[in-house]
Specification:
- The chain is elongated and about 55 Å long.
- The model has no long low-confidence stretch (mean pLDDT 83).
- The N and C termini lie far apart (61 Å).
- A hairpin with a 5-residue loop joins strand 1 and strand 2.
- It has 110 residues and is mostly helical.
- This is Tryptophan synthase subunit beta like protein.
Length: 110
Amino acid sequence: MFVQRNQENGIIAVSSIAQAGFSEHVPDNSDELIEFYASNGGKSELFRQSDAELVRVIEDLVDILTAKGVFQYTELPPEVRNKLNSRKILRRERNSLDLLGTNEDDLPWP
């Protein structure tokens, strides 16, 4: 990996290719690089969570726009339809598993 350093010689950015500002090569298994990844893991998790939320917004938007007839679901590229279908199936399975694990006292009906 190629790294960019701050004035205190600490790693502040990493690139898989040499480019402007990333001229120093550091072995992938170096303690310094592992420490950098560990200290920035929290930010990565925030991005993952944000991405997951954004994906759900996009799925809902596609559902709304197709329901209103703005476009037909079949007009989407096959790769997009496959991804949306896979996510719907996963969500349906997860929701059905959640129902099976629900405490009977928590159900909204007698």
